[in-house]
Amino acid sequence: MFSERTFFSFVSLADPSGHRAYNEWHQLDHRPENLLLPGVAWGDRWARTPGCAQAGEAAAGVAASEFADVDFMAMYWFREPYEQSLAEWNKLAEDSFQWGRGPIIPGVSRPLLAYFVPVRGYVAPRVRVSPEALVFRPNRGLHVTLTELPEPYSPDAHAQFEWLDTTGVPDLLTVPGVAGAWTFSFQGLQEHPTLPLTASERRAPGSLRIRLLYLDDDPEQVTAAIAERTKEWEAAGRGAPAPAAERVLISTPLRTITPWQDW
Hints:
This protein has 263 residues and is of the alpha+beta class. It is 33% helix and 29% strand. An 8-stranded antiparallel beta barrel has the order 1-3-2-8-5-7-6-4, surrounded by 5 helices.
């Protein structure tokens, strides 16, 4: 595995008219500075457009209140040594604040800024790259599912993880447009003086999981196809064995952002 640390950011904008300013800041300022860091292997960002939000809610029927208004998701992969890489990452966050170049931007809220540990990567049989190379392969978008596990080390959680690895993800890889997948387990929240945490916001390691599907077809169409196939799998007895072990916080397609064109 080329990286054992990742960072995820879920972002909401209160005012739709601020999307261009936020996109310009992230794509032309924040992301280039992040990618310059020696400890960052790769990073990108995707948009949850109104069409994506509708497709996700139609397919999954869920968007927990704290994630209902998410507009963007970003993620970054780190290189070893991780302590040094994360120290440089956090220093850039502090430097950016001191420069007056973020992360405080009016109208922007971040329901989750957190570090995750990659669990496992997968590729569809038709995709002739490794799971590690999948991260760098061009995509048209992602499908992200974020879940909360009240008891992350319970037998039911273990049954869910086994099913996902042996049945759930392999089934998803047969859906046209799904190029591959990665799964992630929560490690800890990002902390900075501009991002104060309350006791209620703190989470135990392993209490969140992320499943990413990398898509090379239209994200909304692939999401609809996944929903239809999921009904078939469940009817055939291939559904999750302990769905009550996880609470879905958000499950949605995301579109790849083309700078300037999509602002």
